Structures are given as C-alpha cells and as structure tokens.
Prior knowledge:
275 residues; two-stranded antiparallel sheet
Amino acid sequence: MSILHSSIHGCGIGLRSQHFAYIAEHQPNVPWFEILSDNYLIEGTVQREFVQQIRPDYPITFHGVGLSIGSVEPLNKDYLKRLVKLKNELEPAWISDHLCWTSAHGYNTHDLIPLPYTPDVVNHIVERILQVQDTLGERLVIENVSSYMQFKDSNMTEWEFINQVVEKSDCHLLLDVNNIYVSAINHHFSAEDYLLALPANRIKEIHLAGYEDKQTHLLDTHSRPVTEPVWDLFAKAVKHVGDVPVLIEWDNDIPEFSRLLQEADTAKQIQQQNL
Ligand SMILES: [Fe+2]
C-alpha cells in the first residue's frame, strides 16, 4: 500500500482554489480534504500541481458532478479514463458523485437534476453504477441531491429509491444532511423519516453546507453557514450513522479559511455529543 493511503477520520473541508495560498503557507490542522475531481482532470494545471504538492500531508477524497449517472446517454468514457488516471496519481480514499443527471444531447450542466423514482430508473442507475465500479475497480459513493421539482411518474419515495439503488449496486452512500433538509422543506416530507430510512452501514461520509431561503423554497447554494435545523438534523444523523467522516462544503461567497474551520469545529462538537 502506498504511503499516500491514509484513512479518513473527523471533519474535513472541501478544498477550493481560493484557499490554496493559505493552505500552502499555514498547513492548517485539517484531517482531510475533499477535492472537486472535475476541476483536476486536465494534467499540468496549477490546480493539479497544488494537490500533488499537498497530497503527502493530507488524505483526500474525490467528489464529482460529471458522471451523470442518471443520464440515458452512454457513460462518458473519456471522463472516466481521466478520472482513473487522477485516481492512480492522487490515491483518494474514495470517489463520490451524485444521484442525478447532469448531461443530455452533448450539453453538460452543473445543475444536479433529479430523477423519477421508479423501479425502471433504479435498474438503469444500478447498471450504470456497476459499469463505473468496474472501471474504477472500487465501490462508488453516491450522494443524495437537493431538488426543486418532482416527476409525476415517481411511484416510490426518494429514500426507497436510494435504498434500492444502494442495495442492488452494492455501492456506498454519501449522506448530505443539508440536501435532505432542503428537499424536505421544498416537497413537504419529513426529513427525519428520510434520514432514518437510509441504510446506516452504507454511509461513508456526511456533507454539511448552507442554503439560501428564497421564501417560496430553499435553494442549496453552499453560500452560507450551516443553519440550526440542519445542525439538529445532523445530530440525528450522527445518532443513526455513528462515527463517519463529515465534510464542510462552501462553494459560493467563499469566506476565509478560518470560517470553515469554525464550521468544522461545530460539527465536531455535535458529533462528539451524539455518538
Ligand atoms: Fe453535498
């Protein structure tokens, strides 16, 4: 096993280029970073060199939006090839992406578009996850997304859908607590029912982030601190799932690194109180 392979524990931070200089200068005491793998797929870029440089000091995980696991088009082989190359180079503890689709007719969006929750779609997703897992040579970690629309065709709950996908594909789950809360408010279901229905033994990681309240709906902007109801739901998640790694995500209006460390400290405290 390579020396780079270290285990992931505690509360990590989503690595963003705005903090590269701070991290290089201060080598903050962060147990691990999650990198947005799609931003590192091109060789020879400044970003990729930065991660190569800090990699011996920090365990990392990969997090992507480019798999488009729910799309009806064939999986993007070039994307997967680049991802495998990056994996071999940086040796992440695991690779995650989202339970959604992000491409159609050659057009890619960074919006995470939800799926209809039906048995046919379960089978479609499972087949594609199995292909990805074959290519990666490891289990994929799949994340629940937040949503603002639902399909009339759905004939099961989102959590029943997730359970079937995870069970049939033998993949792992990334539990985004904020996403559950946002969708629960937008679609008027119980966030706790959703959370407690998820298979605890499949959950490899928990995400926390902040949303924006648009009055008519909550928008998952990753531009704010984690809110009180999401911290409350996180406490319940810790009780349900146990001691799994937690990550703070912040993608818009990105604050100073120290603000992210404060969020991580709060997460750590809540985790310790609820284990
Ligand atoms: Fe997330």
